[in-house]
Amino acid sequence: MNLAAAHFKVARANLQANDDLFKKLGIDSLQALELLNDIFIRDRAADFANRLMNENSASPEKCVAAAFRLALSRAPSDVERQSSIAFIDRQLQRRSDRDKSLSSEENKLRAMTDFCQAIFGLNEFIYVD
After folding, report:
1. Per-residue b/e over 57-96, b at no fewer than 16 CB within 10 Å?
2. Which of 6, 57, 70, 117 shows the greatest Cβ crowding within 10 Å of its Cβ?
């Protein structure tokens, strides 16, 4: 397995691409790698996460609703809402377990950034109908 393939496999596992929320991802592999690995995309996801958390009292439920409204111009379905909140909770737990030196707030921001980066990867966000 080459380095790019190994990196993509790890990044994909980190984003839990098998969740219902991410099954809509249908872009070609190079675009997917760009969305997962590009520092510009990650920085914009962090900016979006900061905005969501600042405007919604860092409440995952409110942040998910706002993310869908701002990025996709619609409310999330019940399944999307539940999957999104579960994803954020899982990422928060994993990040907290992995790096004990980060504050709770920093781990929350990073988990929300992971979610925002996943939103950026949705076909619905990338392609205008």
Report:
1. eeebeebbbbbbeebeeeebeeebbebbbebbeebbebbb
2. 117
